[in-house]
Amino acid sequence: MGLASALTTALTGLSAAETQIDVIGNNLANSQTVGFKESRVIYSTQFLQTLSLGAAPTADNGGTNPRQVGLGVQVAEISSNFGQGTIEISSSPSDLAIQDDGFFIVEGASGERLYTRNGIFKLNSDAELVNSTGQRLLGYGIDEQFRLQQSELVPLTVPLGTESVAKATENVTFEGTLTPLGDVSDVSQVIQSQVLGDAQVPSPDGATMLVGTAPTASASGVNVNTAGAGTLPAGDYEYRVVLVDSSGQESTYSNPIDVSVGAGNSIELSNLPVDADGRDFPTVNIYRTDTNGSDLFFLGSAAAGGTFTDTGTQPLDLNTPAELDNLSGNYSYMITYFKQGEKESRPSPLLGPLNTVNGRVTLEGFPDPPVPPESGGFPDYDSIRIYRNLAGDQNNFYLVDTVQPGDTYTDSKSDEEIADLTQSGNQLLDRDGPTIDSNTLLTNVLRRDGSTYENLFKTGTLSYTGRKGGRALGTKELQISETTTVQDLIDFVSATSGIQTAQIDAQNPIPTSENNIQGESGELVPGGMIQDGALRFVSNTGELNGLEIDLTAFRLEDETGNITVPNLAFGTVQEAEGTSAASDLIVYDTLGVPLNVRVTTTLERTSDEETVYRWYADSASNQAAGSDNIAVGTGLITFDGNGNFVSATNSTVNINRQGVPSVSPLQFNLDFSGVSGLATSEASLAATQQDGSAPGVLNSFIVGEDGVVRGVFSNGITRDLGQIQLARFANPVGLDERGSNLYAQGINTGLPVMGAPGENGIGSVIGGAVELSNTDIGKDLVDLVLASTQYRGNSRVITASQQLIDELLNLRR
């Protein structure tokens, strides 16, 4: 039995040496495998053959020890060494290394959780972090707001090039100098349109009017008979006859009719003149001198074409001398509808011109005024007014007379007679009237250009782009309907021009302006109004708050798609005064939409102790329900006597974003602490920083020691994309190796303790690095020599045993 057991014992030694050589070979083979943990072989003895149990000491004997013969060696354990491997920097941000205890958790087939120290990960086509054999790295994911969701482990994703993110502005920082020198901003810029008319009030179209030269009564056809009896004194007489229209106005006088008569006779004038054109001149007036006189006075009237007999019994009307003066010049006329105590209509188109030389002008065909509707809208006109220019003034028209519809009127009034506005009843034609009021429909607003009138607005979309302080405001739109009024337009322009009127701070109300407009007095309140039929807008005080509306500020697209440019002909009637500074900047809402904001500062007051500026904020991107207001804030900035910033009031700006799927309102703070109040020659203001950003694309990522995967976007923003979770085991040596550097939970490992790096005794994660194999090549080579020696030694035992057995077999010889 001894030699046989020696063979089997040596065989166990060979087997153990082979196992150790296998393990050492595996260690050396994986000396360059990332995350590999070397193993070692632990031996134990096989069963023992007991020859004697030994004896305890007695009085006669000191005792003997047991006699046992070992039966060989066995591999008790092949244990992994989970000691830390060397950390090596990598060029890939997805390469990860664990410092100290812990394992990456990856997802195997059918959702099985496996564990590894190999931190070489890459992105697959689904932007998931996977290892070289395709297992997905697990951790905590995020929701749509990039908040970690710590309810379950999910595959971590890094969607490079596809994920976008924006950041809403929360703070804006300003720098500059708001000097106490300069003028206090106490004068506003005032702009005013030309006078605008109301088309709802009708005007005569002049289509029925006829303007012509008044007929001249012919003396050549008048027959004179002096044979009749009468009481005329003997002497020489001069007669003149003139046709009279239905309004009682005389046409051009005839040439003199000279008659001599003896005492006791009468003078008969027959075949009196008629209008050769058949116009309405039903009467002839007869004028005569006194006996042997030269001045003509009214004598009497007769029917046109009839006979008049001067018997001497009818006295001359010395209060009615003959008006022999005639008109000479190039004349045009306009007519209006009129009713005493009511606004006159706007005038008709020009009637004429008519060039007359030493004559008179007849107008006929005066129209009937229209009947107003039951709802009103214009006066119930009952007469017509006639206006005429002067021979030397073609642009202004003066009142000639008032007539009834259907009348014929002959104009014989001289320029001097109608142009003397100091005379009661004389007046200049208001070619713009009647003017607009706040309730005038916008589609009825008229603009006069010379003698023509243009409807400025139609139903459709009106866009407006004004300028403030020389800088363009954003474009806003007003929908014009049949019910839109002038007041709606005033409110729209005031709001979209950022004219601030609301009293946000009762202790520091919006300042009013001095009124330096000629002929006016009192204070001017910021806002829009109607002034003498014109639109007027008063800006907030300060030069850079001055509102401008140029010729192309309005653009109207009607319902058929035609585009016009309504020109209200705004002009400046008062220039703004006051030191001011402005800064334009861009902020971002929660969707990353860029919003233009302008902050204007004006010097409000100075004292022995402080300098106070007022700031105004405008944004054309402000979108509030039922409002077009672009004013988004105002407040005061105070500096002390050393020019140091003291405080700013109401410094939070609110931009409404209704109608846009971003968070509304966008709120951000204006930080003026970097602004100085020192005495410079000019005020300056600049927005130097804001913390919002436009949408950016995810273009890189990093992994922190806490395992958080942070995405870096093209706009500079970082967002959490997930967090790596690690696991540790009470007995990691008990893990079940699955190959490919993967381990599975074993029977003797205990439950995995999972957590973020740095928690629960778990090590930290180093991004952009890998953990190298912890194989100790030198030690393994020494162990290899020892294992080889062990193998050779056991081989010699087998050889020696075989030789002894052979000797025993040879004894029979």
From TrEMBL:
Supply the InterPro entries for this chain. Answer: Falgellar_hook_FlgE_sf, Flag_bb_rod_N, Flagellar_FlgE/F/G, Flg_bb/hook_C_dom, FlgE/F/G-like, FlgE_D2, LlgE_F_G-like_D1
Recorded hits in Gene3D superfamilies, A to Z, give: Flagellar hook protein FlgE
- Any one biological process term the GO annotation gives: bacterial-type flagellum-dependent swarming motility
Q: Which residues form the Flagellar hook protein FlgE/F/G-like D1 domain?
A: 97-162
Q: Which family does it belong to?
A: Belongs to the flagella basal body rod proteins family.
Q: Which NCBIfam families match?
A: FlgEFG_subfam (TIGR03506)
Name of the protein? Flagellar hook protein FlgE
